[in-house]
Structure formats: structure tokens, C-alpha cells
């Protein structure tokens, strides 16, 4: 078959090039001729000639960015996301070729051609067996969000889109990631929707979905069981009217009460605080690192210099982030009326030495107290609008502030000081044990509750300038996808073709401290892969802590760590990452079985073997 393809991505040219290379290599292995055009902001690499388009049997558009498809009119077109072309290349090619081999896949009428230039925020149409849009299904809108706003946010959105297409429905998903909301839902989208899916691990405002059936779940559930989530959302009863000022403190009554209750709780509120705190910590940490790079260890003492100014900026961010953490825990519990008491309580916790432990306490106290007052206080109808903007913030702020000064801060300050002193005094075996535990937690569920608990512990200690645990946490979080990528390259006979193709993207995700890059591998063979990941991450964490590596920033992976001053003991820190990666790869070699026949694997380890051999 003759195939032409175009790849592009709003995430950057690297994704488009990776998708192009994956399509090119896999098509050649399958025995097909392919010409791929990769597009970026500067133009297209290897543009498709008109003659090749005219001679092509099928067209693949691997893109999540707007594209003018008019030049492919009259050709069978298969549209996918660029990420699918990287992770599921062979499936993408098989689906595209099925448009040609199936009689029902005749070129669609111009009115139904799915290659018209999409709008910046298109509704994803469900595809029929012939590749033409199917409009007989329901219309769904959704929102995905996770604490860091990077991996799970977009993986959940992609899973929901794929599930909706498989079920014959249309869906549009708004991703509330680390760079803000993308593919935002318009009032027209919401008005036309039959159901709403909220797949989020942080607080999401549902007030705009008044009157619509809303199903609230986690990103993990959306990734694992997308079709089940879609079906449950469509079975939800319609909610009541949109909440007014009187109910603003309850967190959005439009959502299904039972679903919201089952998917909320302390963990979700804590993760909402983490998601809003992270940008403040990252900005402050990088400013302090730059100050050290320019002015050395005494950067904060030389007034009038640029290094001193940068240290002041970073220090201001570090003084602020506990307040932001506390404020948005309270916001997650009680919506906007909880924000003021949470911020004030967090600021007092920081100023009085209670640190992030005091911030956690003030955030939960402010949130639950505000929500309690919202239910208990009754005002005349003419004054009800004052409750969320005046009465609740005032009463809750007074109560939380006084409780922090007289009750909470003194014992928490003592506990925080004792913990910080213990951590700072750790040497040798004790430090290695803590690093081992934190490292194992980072790998055991790859973005789940244990992973986030270890990460929150490391980030929170940065407020007290205890930064060795953060180095161990980041090293351990980078190791799982890095180790899998190395193993897939060295021991090709133990991985199928799809896993080997995913090795390159996993390596990049590992370097960027996105542990979720290991999830596709672990999902296929959890009993063998997860123990190998835990062994490698525990090694990385233990080596990092034992070596005394310290990290001033909570994200960015190897890219942030290479900024001068961001990491102390940099060679030892890089050695910890390398050691963890090596242990993971070696454990995978021992635990994973060789395949009976590793198609196009190559290499000594690819020789056919009886399944079950170590």
C-alpha cells in the first residue's frame, strides 16, 4: 500500500518528529511505502508533493493541532492524535489500511469528509467502521485535571476520547493542565451535551454545568476503564439547577452528589493544594538556584547585586507557598469562601515556624470550618448574597487565625523543628533507609496515592530548606521510565514491538521526571514490571540520600537539575539516577520472560525461546 501522513503537535516539534519516525519505521517493517510530512511552527519537513497525495491509497493525519486538510479531499483519511502514532503505531497503521481494504471504506461524500480544517477546540467525532463520523450517538463534554497537570491530565483526556469513539459518541475534553486550560468548553458545547465527565484528582468547579448529569471520577479510572466511565456518565440523572451564592461554599451542587462524595476526600483536597503550590515552589527554587549560580554561597548577603535580588525573589516565593498550599486545600473543601481563611492560616503557619505541617492543618481546618458554617448559618433572602463574600470568610478567618496562634502552631512548630533537625542530621545508613522508602513509594503506583504522598513530603520540606529528600524523590521518579527504555533497547527479546517503539518516548519522559511514562509497560505485565521498578527507584533514592545530594526545585527532571546551583553533589546525584536505571533494567532482564518469537527485534537477546524461560 502507498501511504502518506502528516504529523504535528501543539506540544512542540519533537512530538511531531517522533510520530513521523514511528510511522515511517513501522510502515517499512510492515512492507508498505510511506511518505511522512512533519509540521512545526517553522514549516514542514519533507513536504508531500501533490503527485504523491494523488497516488496514495490512504492518508494518516497524526495531529492534535489545527490542520487544513483540504488538499486530501477525496482520499480515505484516518485521523489520530500524535501521541497515539508514537505509542500505538502499528494499530494506527492497521486502522488506516482497513479503510482501503473494507468495502464500506469508500471515499466519503464531501459533506462527510473528516479532513476539513478543525477549529482550535474541536469536538472529537466518533468514528464509524468506515472512518466517517458517526452522529447517531450522544454528545459528551469532560474535564481532566491532576495535581501536577502534566501526564495524567492528558492521558485521561486521550482515554476518554478513544472510549467515546469506540462507543459511537462525540466528546470534547477540556484539559486543566500545568499551563492552564486547553480545548476549553464553550457555553454552546455544554448546552448541547447529554452528559458531563469530570476525571480529576483535584478540585474542579462544576457550577457551569447546572442542570446537566455530571459524573465525577479519577484520572486513573478514566485511563483504565474509559468506556465504563462514559457509560456511567450517560446513565446519570440530570442534576438540579446551577448553584447560587447561598450554595457556593459547597463546591458545586451541579455534580451528582453520590459521585462527588465517593470521589472526594482528604487525599483529593491535599492534591488540589499541591497542584496550585507547585508553580510557586518551582519559580522560587529556580530563582534561588540562579542566585547561587551567579553569586555563590553568599548570594543572599551581598546587597545591591543581581544575585541578591534573585535570592530575594526566590525567598519571597518560598515564604508564600505554604499559604498557597493551605489556601487551596481549603478551597477544594469549601470553594471560594474557604480561600481567605486558608491563606491566612498558611501564612501564619509559615511565619510561626509550623511549616508545611501547619499549612496542612490550617488548610483542612479552614475548609471544613467554612463548609460547616455555610450549612449552619441562615440569613434572610435579601442578605444571603453576603454569606460567601463577607460572613463566611470573616468568621472562618478569625477562628482559624486565633486557633493557629494559640493552639496549633506551638506544638506543630516543635514537631516540625524536631523532624527537620532529624532529617538534617541524617548520615549514612539512616539517610539511605529514608531514601529507599521514598524511592519505593515513587515507583509502586507511578502517580497514585503513595507516589504523591512521597512527592508531597519532599516538596513540603523545601519550605524549611530541607532539600535532600526532594533530590531522592526526583531521582527515584525518573528511574522507572528510564530503566524500561534502557531494558527495551538492550533486551529486545523480552519486549514486543509496541513496547520497543515506546522505549524512546519513555526515555524522554523519564528525563523530564514524568514517572507515568512507565504505566503502559506496567499495565501489560504488572507482576514482573512493578517489582523491577520498585527495586530501581529504591536504589536511586537510597544512593541519593546517602551521598547527601540536595535539590532546590521540585520538578523539571534532569533539565532543572542541570541548572548551576540547583543541585549540590551533582555527580553523586546523576550517579544515583544511573544506578537506579541500571538496577531496573537488570531486574527486568531477570523477571521478564523472553517472547517465543520477537518479531523484527534483532540482537542476541531476541533469539526465539520457549515461553516461560527467564
Biggest sheet layout:
5 strands, mixed
The assembly state of the depicted protein chains is single chain
Strand content: 5-15%
Termini Cα gap: 39 Å
Strand order of the largest sheet: 3-2-1-4-5
Number of strands: 14
Q: What class, by secondary structure content?
A: alpha/beta
Helix content: 55-70%
Low-confidence parts, pLDDT < 50 over ≥5 residues? 102-136, 239-263, 598-604, 606-614
Mean pLDDT: 80
Using only CA atoms, what is the Rg? 26 Å
User: Shape, please?
Assistant: globular
- How many distinct helices? 22
Describe this protein's structure.
- There is one protein chain.
- The protein is an alpha/beta fold.
- 56% of the residues lie in helices and 10% in strands.
- The chain has 22 helices and 14 strands.
- The protein has helices at residues 13-29, 50-55, 82-87, 89-101, 151-167, 187-192, 219-224, 226-234, 257-263, 266-295, 306-334, 339-351, 355-376, 387-424, 428-444, 449-461, 468-490, 497-511, 519-524, 526-547, 557-561, 570-591; strands at 2-8, 33-40, 43-45, 58-63, 77-80, 126-127, 133-134, 139-145, 170-177, 180-182, 195-200, 214-217, 550-551, 567-568.
- Strands 3-2-1-4-5 form a five-stranded mixed sheet. It has a five-stranded mixed sheet with strand order 10-9-8-11-12.
- α10 runs antiparallel to α11 (306-334).
- It is globular.
- Mean pLDDT is 80; it is low at 102-136, 239-263, 598-604 and 606-614.
Amino acid at each position: 500500500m502507498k501511504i502518506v501522513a502528516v504529523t504535528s503537535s501543539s506540544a512542540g516539534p519533537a512530538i511531531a518528529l517522533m510520530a513521523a519516525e514511528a510511522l515511517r519505521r513501522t510502515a517499512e517493517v510492515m512492507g508498505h511505502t510511506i511518505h511522512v510530512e512533519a509540521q512545526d511552527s517553522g514549516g514542514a519537513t519533507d513536504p508531500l508533493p501533490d503527485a504523491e497525495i494523488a497516488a496514495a491509497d490512504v492518508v494518516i493525519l497524526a495531529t492534535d493541532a489545527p490542520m487544513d486538510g483540504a488538499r486530501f479531499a477525496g482520499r480515505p483519511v484516518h485521523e489520530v492524535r500524535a501521541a497515539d502514532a508514537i505509542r500505538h503505531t502499528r494499530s494506527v497503521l492497521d486502522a488506516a489500511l482497513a479503510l482501503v481494504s473494507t468495502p464500506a471504506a469508500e471515499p466519503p461524500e464531501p459533506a462527510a469528509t473528516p479532513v476539513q480544517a478543525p477549529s482550535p477546540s474541536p469536538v472529537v467525532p466518533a468514528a464509524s467502521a468506515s472512518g466517517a463520523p458517526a452522529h447517531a450517538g450522544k454528545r459528551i463534554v469532560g474535564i481532566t485535571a491532576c495535581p501536577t497537570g502534566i501526564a495524567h491530565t492528558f492521558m485521561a483526556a486521550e482515554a476518554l476520547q478513544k472510549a467515546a469513539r469506540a462507543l459511537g459518541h462525540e466528546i470534547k475534553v477540556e484539559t486543566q493542565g500545568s499551563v492552564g486550560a486547553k480545548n476549553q468548553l464553550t457555553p454552546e458545547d455544554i448546552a448541547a451535551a447529554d452528559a458531563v465527565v469530570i476525571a480529576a484528582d483535584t478540585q474542579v468547579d462544576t457550577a457551569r454545568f447546572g442542570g446537566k448529569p455530571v459524573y465525577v471520577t479519577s484520572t486513573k479510572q478514566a485511563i483504565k476503564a474509559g468506556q465504563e466511565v462514559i457509560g456511567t456518565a450517560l446513565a446519570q440523572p440530570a442534576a438540579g439547577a446551577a448553584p447560587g451564592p447561598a450554595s457556593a461554599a459547597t463546591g458545586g451542587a451541579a455534580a451528582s452528589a453520590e459521585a462527588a462524595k465517593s470521589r472526594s476526600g482528604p487525599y483529593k483536597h491535599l492534591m488540589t493544594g499541591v497542584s496550585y503550590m507547585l508553580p510557586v515552589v518551582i519559580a522560587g527554587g529556580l530563582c534561588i538556584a540562579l542566585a547561587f549560580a551567579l553569586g555563590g554561597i553568599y548570594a543572599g548577603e551581598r546587597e545591591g547585586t543581581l544575585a541578591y535580588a534573585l535570592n530575594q525573589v526566590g525567598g519571597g516565593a518560598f515564604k508564600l507557598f505554604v499559604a498557597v498550599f493551605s489556601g487551596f486545600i481549603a478551597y477544594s473543601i469549601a470553594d471560594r469562601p474557604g480561600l481567605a481563611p486558608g491563606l491566612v492560616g498558611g501564612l501564619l503557619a509559615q511565619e510561626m515556624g509550623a511549616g508545611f505541617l501547619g499549612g496542612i492543618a490550617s488548610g483542612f481546618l479552614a475548609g471544613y470550618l467554612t463548609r460547616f458554617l455555610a450549612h449552619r448559618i441562615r440569613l434572610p433572602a435579601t442578605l444571603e448574597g453576603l454569606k460567601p463574600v463577607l460572613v463566611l470568610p470573616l468568621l472562618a478567618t478569625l477562628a482559624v487565625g486565633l486557633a493557629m496562634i494559640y493552639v496549633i502552631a506551638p506544638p506543630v512548630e516543635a514537631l516540625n523543628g524536631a523532624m527537620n533537625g532529624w532529617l538534617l542530621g541524617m548520615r549514612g545508613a539512616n539517610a539511605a533507609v529514608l531514601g529507599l522508602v521514598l524511592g519505593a513509594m515513587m515507583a509502586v503506583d507511578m502517580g497514585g496515592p503513595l507516589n504523591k504522598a512521597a512527592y508531597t513530603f519532599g516538596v513540603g520540606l523545601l519550605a524549611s530548606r530541607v532539600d535532600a529528600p526532594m533530590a531522592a524523590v526526583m531521582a527515584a521518579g525518573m528511574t522507572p521510565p528510564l530503566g524500561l527504555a534502557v531494558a527495551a533497547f538492550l533486551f529486545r527479546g523480552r519486549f514486543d514491538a509496541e513496547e520497543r517503539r515506546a522505549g524512546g518516548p519513555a526515555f524522554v519522559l523519564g528525563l523530564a521526571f514524568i514517572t507515568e511514562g512507565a504505566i503502559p509497560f506496567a499495565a501489560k505485565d504488572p507482576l514482573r514490571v512493578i517489582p523491577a521498578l520498585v527495586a530501581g527507584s529504591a536504589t536511586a533514592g537510597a544512593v541519593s540520600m546517602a551521598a547527601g545530594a540536595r535539590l532546590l526545585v521540585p520538578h523539571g527532571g534532569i533539565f532543572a537539575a542541570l541548572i548551576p546551583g540547583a543541585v549540590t553533589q551533582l555527580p553523586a546525584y546523576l550517579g544515583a539516577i544511573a544506578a537506579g536505571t541500571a538496577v531496573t533494567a537488570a531486574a527486568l532482564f531477570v523477571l521478564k520472560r523472553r517472547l517465543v518469537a520477537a518479531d523484527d527485534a534483532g540482537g542476541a537477546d531476541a533469539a526465539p525461546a520457549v515461553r516461560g524461560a527467564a
